[in-house]
Design goal:
Helices cover 39% and strands 20% of the residues. The protein has helices at residues 13-24, 40-47, 67-75, 79-83; strands at 4-8, 30-33, 56-59, 62-65. Strands 2-1-3-4 form a four-stranded mixed beta sheet.
Length: 87
């Protein structure tokens, strides 16, 4: 299974949607809540090429973008291979 990391904020509907998609696929992920851990914002900015919005999602260390990009990968049938799952 791939390592999935997601930078989130508590009050973010897009974060909830992204996490929900991963959860329905049975994918474990590491979540970094920027409200609880504000020091992680700089880390996210560096890793995400300066993007400031949440969520920012990484699969095996590769930045895939936010919620819209995650759902686009799913719609194109490209998410499961990235996650290394058949589900």
């Amino acid at each position: 299974m791939a390592e999935v990391e997601i930078y989130t904020s508590l009050l973010c509907g897009f974060c909830y949607r992204a996490k929900r998609l991963l959860e329905t696929k049975g994918i474990a992920f590491s979540e970094y809540n920027l409200l609880a851990e504000p020091q992680r914002r700089r880390e996210m900015l560096e890793r995400a090429g300066g993007r400031t919005s949440v969520p920012q999602i990484f699969i095996d260390g590769v930045h895939i973008g936010g919620c819209d990009e995650l759902y686009a990968l799913e719609a194109a049938g490209k998410l499961n291979p990235l996650l290394k799952t058949a589900a």
